[in-house]
Give the backbone structure.
Amino acid sequence: MDNVYIDFERALEIVLSQARLLPSEKVPIFSALHRVLAEDVLADRDNPPAPVSAMDGYGVRFDDIEEVPVKLKVTEDIPAGKVPSSVLERGEAVRIFTGSIIPKGCDTVVPVEYAEENNGFVTIKRTFPRGSNIREKGEDYKRGTVLLKRGTYITPIEMGILASVNRTSVKVSVKPKVGIITTGSEIVEPGEELKEISQIRNSNAYTLYGLTVEAGGEPVYLGRIDDDREETKEKLTQALEFCDLVITSGGISMGNYDFIRDILPEIGVETLFYKVKVKPGKPVFFGRKGNKFIFALPGFPVSTVVSFNNFVYPFIKKMLGAEKTFRKKVKGILIKDFKRRKSDRTEFARCKYTYDPNSREYRVIPLRRQGSGILSAMTGDTGLMVVPSGVKFMKEGEPVDLILIKEN
């Protein structure tokens, strides 16, 4: 089976088919930011709850302003939040503000800039159609309207909507506990001294931690393990008992010290796939043990990032019941030719991009260096350009699929 590669599309299909929906929990609104709704949220009343003014000005009867200028008596001041105390009669006006409730008898609002008040009277200088500048009851939405659907990702805007419908708490999907393990005797934690030129910093642990938070999981860093078979076996066994999902980086290819692929069946992990026709990130493993899952990702930093975005990100989102499962994908225009030697795999080529607001186009420039270890090239406005299997050459000006791999 180790020599059998599967297509990217088939691998993704397997990943999504395995994702189980997590249970929900109720949290206060202040704790709901960046969580996924596990219930529909309905309007508790009409909005606005009564006819209100759309701007500052004067509430009048249309019949009084058909011919202007006209002088009307100001009978009441109605700030937002006050209930009008009387019915507006002919020849009268009320001073009104944005959001103020419209009194009975009033059917038009004249903006303040078209009126002049003096000694208790206001002169209306311009006429307006009946109903102008008034928001009717329920104009935004009616009581019982679904304002937020289950699966919605909660941003500050959704927090405000929750508060506006009198919610103090809300049901959200429980975050999956995601264990992160990095492998390799050459790996050194930040803050530790590099004693040999062959040693490298443990960047993958922090990258995976951040990516897991972005996806909506609860990351738990379980540490680095040396290239030791028994230590690796023990750590993986513990991780699968403790976590909903385990992610490892490194130790999954064909090297003499790549133990993970052989160890996983020994501890009861069923192989769902191993090795995908994708670049970068070919030696990626996905398996399960009961209702626990593991992704073993390649150790090169760029391969780790791309593999996470391709498989782990949508898996976590599907577990959360999120409405949007994948990173945002847009159409872009290739700014310079792209070619590659082999076309047997789907490639996610690193690229820079800009957005032209005039043409509303993303302009895509493939990076010259596509090495799997060059993480620094992924800073700034970097995305992934999808190069389909079977395609060797893409010409300047061609439309391409661009995956935006950063939240902001």
User: Anything to note?
Assistant: The CA atoms of residues 260 and 318 lie 26 Å apart. The mean pLDDT is 94.
